[in-house]
From TrEMBL:
A Pfam entry, by short name: Peptidase_S8
Keyword tags: Hydrolase, Protease, Serine protease
Residues covered by the Peptidase S8/S53 domain: 220-460
Active site: 229 (charge relay system), 261 (charge relay system), 437 (charge relay system)
Entry-linked InterPro entries: Peptidase_S8/S53_dom, Peptidase_S8/S53_dom_sf, Peptidase_S8_His-AS, Peptidase_S8_Ser-AS, Peptidase_S8_subtilisin-like, Peptidase_S8_subtilisin-rel
Similarity annotation: Belongs to the peptidase S8 family.
The UniProt record lists the keyword Nucleotide-binding: no
Lineage: Bacteria, Pseudomonadati, Bacteroidota, Cytophagia, Cytophagales
Keyword Ion transport assigned: no
Name listed for the protein in its UniProt record: S8 family serine peptidase
Amino acid sequence: MSKPVYHNYILLPKFGVRFPDNAPGSDTQQTLARLKPNTQLDDVLDGNLTDQAVVLDSTGQRGAKLVRLPESELADLRAQLPGLRIVPEVFYYPQRWQREVQRKPGPLQGQVRTGVKIVLKEAKSGKPVVGAVVVAFTNFDEREGEQATSDAQGVVRFKSIGNRPIDQLYIYPKVGYWSFWKQKLTIKDNDTFTIQPVKLDYQDAKNFFYSAAAEGQPAGRGVKVAVIDTGAGPHPDLNIAGGACTVTGDDPTDFSDVDEHGTHVSGIVAARGIPPTGVRGAAPEVELYAYRVFGKNNPGASNFAIIKAIEQAVADGCDIINMSLGGGPSDDATEDAISFAHDNGTICFVATGNDGRQPVSFPASFSLSLAVGAMGRKGTFPANTTDAPNVAAPYGTDKKNFVAAFSNIGPDVDFIAPGVGIVSSVPGGYAPLSGTSMACPMATGVAARLLSVEKSILSMPRNAARAEAMVRFLATKVKTLGFGPTFEGTGMLFV
């Protein structure tokens, strides 16, 4: 007998992510309220569900439930809960741009695979660069090659690419350095590559387009911003007012970063450092809230964790939500959560995705999301970094401006923002990263800075009219860069 196939599903009301507080208590609603974490469904429902069908998580008595059950029992569950929607659990991913190998190189005629090692050293000091991911493509178009990580001596050991021409080489250090990129080379044993350290007063694209608010200026004051991501901090440049972890099974109070992505995104919005010893975000005086939806050593964020985080952000009074994630299928639960935020006076900025001119990914493609694509500017990152291949047409009215080659496009784009070579906070220091993940918080931070002086809007009742007023106001603060609506939507927000 074959083993049963288990799946996770989200139970939702017929409309929205929760039953209204004033809704009459139907039988279905009362049944949903009884489904609490660790409850076996068969203890609450009639029918023939096995003890393997369980409730994993809940957003509250009137809200969504995450359940696990054998796929063969799904029809029975639908029959017993005819007034509820049953939505599959799906996952979304950080929209940080980074090349990865998809398959190992095939054999060369007449040659055997051989190993080779290289050394990474910091420019001038010569100290080893530790923990850098090095990606060597033998066939870039097919994503064929090998990747490895530098050890404590800065040594990178490859097993199978010796004596082969390398199509493109990408080096991604972790903290404190610019990336490195080179085309058409053959790696020899003990070749040394010099990596440039990052200076925090460097004029990246963020600093080129937006003057940093001086210390003491009320840039963003009075606005609450939620970052739904891999967590945030701790970091000396971040003052995090609150947050939560909504990952099923994790400590709900632990919203510290399990990666680096969320700390980087948060710094773009709200870092309070002063160069050259720190970095400064677009709106350093906002109240920053961090909601961790990614588990430890888990690359994807569940739609259930996301809707739980959005509901919590609304409950905490956040005005703007930043979601630098995407890449999953369209999903009713996530759409309903974004609609819930909108109906409660909160707007959601979402990264368009990094699929190289493909259509805008979900959830940015949802009509109530504010979808943000990425642009860059020549001269705001070193020429030999991994951002060099991201320079691509179309170019703007100013020919130094370009739409990042990775940025997704289409009629769903609302804004564009700097997202190439953006220097921000990461656990343990600072680093430049690229992606629509970086562009999205740029737009979020500038929006917070603009809205902070619009007290008449911020004081409105927290309903859909408030969210619509915020969007209409922001539409008056946009300038086109000359890329065209398919690439930039209405353009870039400016203070």
